[in-house]
Design brief:
heterodimer, A: alpha/beta, Rossmann fold, B: 339 residues, alpha/beta, 6-stranded mixed sheet, 4-stranded antiparallel sheet
């Protein structure tokens, strides 16, 4: 019996692994867990299935004569170290890079960050937050001073109004989504802003079915109505915010009628939503990738922050601006500084005092300029500037935008090194593959979406010769001639905590209890901080920043008349490397993978199950259709878990200029029967 | 009858000589079934763990046949270790009666079941969320146990034996039992009455069960009621995983090289894929259809087990596990007009 933390989404549910004969024989929910309280979603219930798959990688692989062949660790490490050394000799330190994993532990992410900076001498380190919540980190740091979920999940039970924007919570964060449904059943008003008719949207008191990428117009319309009717929290604005007049005057053009014209939602609905949210004493605002994965992602986050501040909902019980992080440890991987511009705890790499502290702790000179993002690393690989890349537990060939560009770019590297559980699409094109230990095979911590740091515990031994990422990175560092001195997970955590004020009071010993601790937790006696900004915003005053509607980078036209958006299914996770090895989850896949409205389907003679081709300027994908009123006319939607029909063959890689987030949520496509 | 609780610990230690003794113990703040080796005192008051004992009798994943590179197939016969499950509550024993009837001569089930020694423990009062009384599954145990224990308030223990193996275990441990005298029989009856009286009055359970079992069979409740519950089912499989009487499995082939194994894996009828046909046709296309079928199987007399008892044993686990609040009591509340 090993109590641990679920490896799927970022809700951070408590999981008990039942071990028999050296294998995980069963999974049960942790009854006493403060968040999940004895519940799991379908992914959690199936968490044991992928562990013992015969497809697990059990030995290092090396490409020889075009084929990946098993080799001893020594050979794989020596090859990887030599490739890194050659690249650095020929192209300088910035000719190499590391993509860390949002699925591995904090200890693994810290090791990846330290390996990039202290061993390779580059700030080229990033991870998949780039394609999920980089705009949240950027936006909320500007307005509030901290880029994380402000309020705990438990505040769903303490609020008077629930506002969900661009998030399919019952499918992607099921245990949280169910809690929202239960609160709604108790009578708490539920407002949903989403182009798709999600389960929550169908249950909601108000469903604002906005046009894709018009979130800012909708929020500005709400703000206009709030100021026009005097529903703002004047005392809160006076005491705790700045830039109120600039925001108010910027809203002049966003009358409900104008917002209605842009969003396609009736003006009366916009005013209703504003009244329900603003007139409630406390409003819990949550949002997902529908907000962030746009060229205007950071500005949309800022707009939502404006909305929460104007109504006095930041720093109060039952309120907040709550980005729902996607992966089990994407919050932690950000916290660990697996980002090109910050050390652990969001300490900027270009701050000389910060850099000196890390230089003296590690005894090496560290680079001062921010590094490349994961997508910029792909472009640098394509241009020949980046020569060797280490990718840990990510599958960018499936999950990143821009058609077949990702595979082509990675194919141009001198050496691609991948650490993985399975031979993913990205691992298939690697030159060196390290077999990795899964969550059930190592000790460490995950940080959930509500900044809750929880223990992950080893239940069984890794298969074959698989290692934890931090072990692999330490071995590779030794081969590179610069050992990092990482000895065990508790020691890695202790080193990190000593350098990271928000984790400063935590240790593996303190995290033993169920539920762990929420950061910031600066001292060994600090109880943790479930709710941010209670005594004023982290940055001082909450900053209101006027933002204006930016249309999507690509709009439909005669050639590509429909808009494509992407989403996730309850029974799958990410690129599916774990969930697709669970037989019940794999069987649950829908027959078709592109959702299309009946009116658009009829015009194209498409029925449910019919083969269709989805084309954009960047590529095309063939799959089957699901005719459904989940999507409005003019919009089609695809989940991105399936390499055989990946929407990322057609999605747009146009970037948010601030967070460098690609616009995965909207592009123009043509759909035809085939 | 035993004059004190001490002989029970002797029985556990003797069972541990040739069996793995598995008992409820608190683990990280909640009860769990733990291999204790019969060590320490018996945890008389530890509540039933959320995860039941089904996995010992029907593993989550169990190989049933294998083939090799010459195409030769052979059954994979289990050689289960001998176990003793000590402290089974009435609900879990009632569920094992269902499993026994359902699997019948299934060799994999028979092998595991024959290797398991069952010791029951009567509940002196209702547990939180349990409603075994309303579905005639408890709180005092009936077959199939090898031994069953009823703790009396004065420290004595009434021990009942249900099988020859149970009698042999008592003899093996050298435990002498006195016959239950008249006064003790009266006390037992009073304890049973007191236990029954401890259950909260839930008239919606009675009303809900009556509606489930009204004519015409399976169709007495309007479709709209089930379709209204449908969206609350997220198809998480929590209820079917924890339900001690759920027996559905699917078959998974796992090729390894030119050979491979076929395993059966717990399935869930709440999943869309459970009944989807190859053509794409689905006999239960809406979540509400699947919710109706599941509860029809649990709460209708049409699916009563061999003892005439319902497929639901009232353990309340589904109410804990269901994110959508449509576990058994949640559904009965809806059917019985409480929500």
């Amino acid at each position: 019996m090993t109590t641990t933390t679920c490896p799927f989404c970022a809700v951070g549910c408590g999981l008990v692994l039942d071990v028999a004969g050296g294998r995980v024989a069963g999974v049960a929910p942790e009854r006493a867990h403060p968040v999940s309280r004895g519940q799991l979603c379908a992914k959690g219930w199936n968490a044991a299935q992928f562990l013992a798959s015969p497809e697990r990688l059990t030995r290092p692989l090396l490409r020889r004569n075009g084929r990946l062949e098993p080799v001893p660790w020594d050979v794989a490490l020596a090859t990887a170290a030599a490739a890194l050394a050659t690249a650095r000799r020929e192209g300088g330190s910035d000719a190499v890079g590391v993509v860390a994993s949002a699925r591995a532990t904090n200890e693994d992410a810290f090791a990846a960050m330290k390996f990039a900076r202290a061993v390779l001498g580059t700030n080229n380190v990033d991870h998949c937050a780039r394609v999920c919540h980089a705009p949240s980190v950027a936006g909320l740091r500007r307005t509030l001073g901290s880029g994380a979920m402000t309020n705990p999940i438990a505040d769903v039970d303490e609020t008077d109004c629930l506002l969900v924007v661009g998030a399919d919570v019952t499918e992607n964060h099921a245990i949280l989504g169910a809690r929202i449904l239960a609160a709604h059943e108790r009578g708490v008003p539920l407002l949903v802003v989403d182009p798709r008719r999600t389960r929550l949207a169908r249950a909601a008191d108000v469903h604002a079915q906005i046009r894709l990428g018009t979130d800012i117009a909708f929020v500005n319309g709400m703000l206009h109505a709030i100021f026009a009717h005097g529903w703002e929290d004047g005392a809160y604005l006076d005491a705790r915010c700045e830039n109120v007049d600039a925001l108010r005057s910027s809203l002049a053009r966003w009358t409900p009628d104008e917002a209605a014209r842009v969003t396609g939602v009736p003006a009366a609905t916009i005013v209703d939503a504003a009244r329900l949210y603003a007139a409630s004493r406390r409003g819990w605002l949550a949002y997902g990738l529908g907000v962030t994965q746009h060229v205007s992602g950071t500005e949309t986050v800022i707009a939502l922050s404006n909305l929460a501040l104007v109504t006095g909902n930041v720093g109060v019980v039952g309120g907040g601006v709550n980005p729902l992080r996607g992966q089990n440890n994407v919050q932690g991987a950000c916290d660990m500084g697996a980002l090109p511009d910050v050390y652990p705890g969001y300490q900027p790499v270009d701050d000389p005092a910060v850099r000196r502290r890390f230089e003296s702790a590690w005894g090496v000179a560290l680079p001062s300029a921010p590094g490349l993002t994961s997508l910029a690393m792909q472009h640098a690989a394509y241009d020949g500037r980046l020569k060797t890349l280490l990718v840990i537990g990510e599958d960018p060939v499936v999950t990143d935008p821009g058609g077949r560009f990702v595979a082509r770019a990675l194919g141009r590297l001198d050496c691609l090194i991948v650490a993985e559980l399975f031979l993913t699409e990205t691992a298939k094109i690697a030159d060196v593959v390290f077999p990795a230990a899964s969550f059930a095979e190592k000790d460490g911590t995950f940080t959930s979406t509500e900044r809750r740091v929880q223990r992950v515990r080893r239940a069984v031994a890794p298969p074959g010769e698989a290692w934890s990422d931090w072990e692999m990175l330490e071995a590779l560092a030794m081969r590179c001639g610069r050992p990092m001195g990482l000895r065990d997970p508790a020691g890695v955590f202790a080193e990190m905590a000593a350098l990271t004020p928000i984790y400063g009071g935590m240790s593996h010993a303190r995290l033993e209890a169920s539920g762990g601790l929420c950061w910031p937790c600066p001292t060994a006696t600090h109880p943790g901080t479930p709710r941010l900004h209670e005594a004023g915003c982290v940055r001082g005053r909450g900053r209101l920043i006027p933002v204006d509607q930016t249309p999507p980078a690509e709009l439909p036209d005669a050639e590509y008349p429909l808009q494509l958006t992407t989403f996730r299914l309850h029974h799958q996770y990410g690129s599916g490397s774990m969930t697709r090895r669970a037989p019940l989850l794999e069987r649950e896949n829908p027959r078709g993978l592109v959702w299309i409205h009946a009116s658009d389907a009829a015009r194209r003679r498409i029925t449910t199950g019919a083969p269709v081709r989805v084309r954009s300027r960047r590529g095309e994908v063939t799959t089957r259709a699901v005719v459904s009123d989940d999507v409005p006319p003019g919009v089609v939607a695809m989940p991105y878990h399936f390499a055989e029909a990946s929407p990322n063959l057609v999605t747009n890689d146009a970037l948010d200029p601030i967070a460098r987030m690609p616009e995965l949520k909207v592009c123009a496509v043509a759909v035809e029967a085939c | 009858m035993l004059e004190s609780r001490a002989p029970v610990d002797r029985i556990r230690r003797v069972l541990a000589l040739d069996r793995r003794v598995i008992e409820p113990r608190p683990v990280d703040g909640a009860p769990a079934w733990v291999a204790t080796g019969g060590e320490g005192a018996f945890a008389w008051s530890t509540p039933a763990p959320l995860a039941g004992v089904k996995g010992w009798l029907v593993p989550l994943r169990e190989a049933v046949l294998a083939w090799d590179d010459r195409g030769t197939m052979r059954p994979v016969v289990p050689h289960p270790e001998r176990i003793a499950l000590v402290g089974l509550r009435a609900c879990d024993l009632a569920a094992i009666a269902h499993l026994d009837a359902h699997f019948g001569a299934d060799p994999w089930y028979r092998a595991r079941r024959a290797a398991a020694f069952l010791v029951g423990l009567d509940c002196p009062q209702a547990c939180a969320g349990g409603f075994c009384l309303e579905v005639d599954a408890g709180p005092f145990a009936r077959a199939p146990f090898d031994l069953n224990l009823t703790a009396l308030p004065d420290g004595r223990v009434v021990v009942a034996w249900g099988t020859a193996a149970g009698v042999a275990a008592l003899h093996g441990a050298g435990v002498a039992t006195a016959p239950v005298d008249h006064a003790t029989a009266l006390l037992l009856a009073e304890l049973a009455a007191r236990a029954a009286a401890s259950f909260p009055v839930r008239s919606y359970v009675t009303r809900g069960l009556a509606r489930m079992n009204a004519a015409p069979a399976g169709r007495a409740i309007a479709d709209e009621e089930w379709q209204a519950l449908g969206p609350r089912c997220l198809a998480c499989t929590g209820c079917t995983s924890l339900c001690p009487t759920c027996t559905c499995f699917t078959v998974v082939d796992q090729p390894v090289g030119a050979g491979g194994t076929r395993a059966r894996v717990w399935d869930s009828c709440l999943l869309e894929g459970f009944q989807r046909e190859a053509s794409g046709h689905h006999p239960a296309p809406h979540p509400g259809d699947r919710v109706r079928r599941f509860w029809y199987h649990k709460l209708s007399r049409d699916f009563a087990g061999p003892t005439g008892r319902l497929g639901c044993v009232g353990c309340g686990r589904c109410d804990v596990a269901c994110p959508g609040t449509i576990g058994a009591l949640g559904v009965l509340a809806a059917l019985g007009g409480e929500r």
